[in-house]
Design goal:
heterodimer, A: about 200 residues, alpha+beta, three-stranded antiparallel β-sheet, 4 helices, about 25% strand, B: about 230 residues, six-stranded mixed β-sheet, 7 helices, globular
Chain lengths: ~200, ~230
């Protein structure tokens, strides 16, 4: 096991919650910092967009890729899927690539019916109102390929989490050094059954 | 709710990347449980930029695909375990390893059944409406672990059952063994005090299948957190 190197980072995001100890399985890989931005071509940022009811912990995260990235997804098999899940499934049904993932915290978005789905469409096309709309230009301007960018995004997607979760590894694949990174959130309502 | 974003600079075809993500999800996020509630929002999105300069991976059976799959599994398992570790109110991570089945999927099903068991992690006292956990209560109760393995829906002979808690063997060849109860209880207590890991190993036969699942103990704080939380 090893601790994420971001655990000792003094960046802005660590003011809110510490980084989780990441229990990486043993293998030929080497842990590297950065989480989602560790791999070439990715930028990320997290910021407070005024979406949370309480506090000013970052609540809006954006991960982008400089090129069209081959995209895949697994989703809840819960019949009552939230609007963003339906949107992402439809998008990946129709397209093999993606350039960005936008994630918000602090706004419940399940069982919101047609109005909820319309909100998702509006968010995705950057015409949402108030907090989200006002935050998007700043969010995009703040995108960064630095470790802080990855760390702040990992904090921005958390809800009741006491720690942020972010990790990346580097390994030789097919004669080249390849990086795989990621971030996740989750603390309660956790019994995933995704496909 | 679980949300995850995975990125890589490996060059991989869409078909292979989607299958890899599903395999990794089944070995990681789909093998964790905190409270048994499947969210309406669970999502993992994985993006591959192809900018590493590596050769294109277009077959799942290639050596390069196996290398990338191992990396993907490792990252997603690391993240998945940190979610179970951070389960609401949790004082420790529970790692269940099952061996001896014919297939990986069978071992995975048994492991998740044990990690999910409310009897293994807690039993609910209806009289007081408070929770006492087998793990949280530091009680090395092998019977609850055996029970959860038994109802997983995977057939095995009870006489093949072997259960260990950390380094302590609680049951072998289907028979409970005399063990140092104080040491086993101390193992659980230590994990709880340090927010460490409780390792449970279960063997059900001689097959090559093996898998892991991860959960956490159930403490009083779980109820408190969820009574106070709303969106």
């Amino acid at each position: 096991s090893s601790s994420s190197s971001s655990m000792t980072s003094l960046d802005q995001s660590s003011k809110y919650i510490p980084a989780a100890p990441i229990l990486l399985p043993q293998g030929p890989w080497k842990e590297v910092p950065g989480g989602v931005i560790a791999a070439k071509g990715f930028k990320a940022v997290g910021m407070y967009g005024g979406l949370r009811a309480k506090g000013e912990k970052p609540d809006l995260a954006l991960v982008t890729c400089d090129v069209d990235a081959i995209a895949a997804g697994v989703f809840t098999t819960n019949v009552v899927a939230a609007a963003p899940v339906i949107y992402c499934k439809k998008t990946l049904d129709n397209c093999n690539t993606a350039r960005a993932v936008l994630i918000n915290a602090g706004q419940a978005n399940a069982a919101t019916g047609d109005a909820g789905y319309q909100d998702v469409i509006e968010c995705a096309t950057s015409v949402a109102k108030e907090a989200l709309l006002h935050s998007l230009p700043k969010l995009i301007d703040s995108l960064s390929s630095t470790i802080d960018g990855g760390d702040s995004a990992a904090v921005a997607i958390t809800t009741t989490d006491l720690v942020s979760k972010s990790v990346a590894v580097e390994c030789e694949v097919g004669g080249a050094l390849v990086r795989v990174g990621g971030m996740a959130k989750g603390s309660g309502m956790i019994h995933p059954n995704m496909a | 709710t679980l949300l995850g974003v995975i990125t890589t600079d490996a060059l991989v075809t869409s078909d292979v990347w989607r299958k890899m993500l599903l395999t990794a999800a089944n070995r990681s996020f789909n093998q964790i449980t905190v409270d048994g509630d499947t969210s309406t929002n669970d999502t993992v999105i994985a993006l591959a930029s192809g900018l590493s300069g590596s050769t294109k991976i277009s077959s799942l059976n290639s050596y390069e695909a196996k290398q990338l799959q191992a990396c993907l599994d490792a990252v997603m398992q690391g993240l998945a375990k940190s979610i179970a570790w951070d389960g609401e109110g949790a004082t420790c991570l529970i790692e269940v390893t099952v061996t001896g089945t014919n297939y990986e999927a069978e071992a995975a099903k048994i492991a998740r059944s044990v990690a999910s068991s409310s009897l293994a992690k807690a039993f609910n006292s209806l009289l007081s409406l408070t929770f006492f956990a087998a793990i949280y209560g530091r009680d090395p109760n092998w019977g609850r672990l055996a029970c959860a393995a038994g109802y997983a829906g995977i057939a095995f002979h009870p006489n093949d059952l072997r259960i260990s808690l950390g380094d302590t063997i609680l049951m072998d060849k289907g028979q409970p063994l005399p063990f140092d109860r104080a040491a086993a209880s101390s193992y659980l207590k230590r994990a709880g005090e340090t927010h460490g890991t409780v390792k449970i190993s279960i063997c059900v036969g001689n097959g090559q299948g093996w898998a892991q699942a991860w959960g956490c103990d159930l403490s009083y704080d779980y109820v408190k957190i969820n009574a106070e939380y709303t969106t």
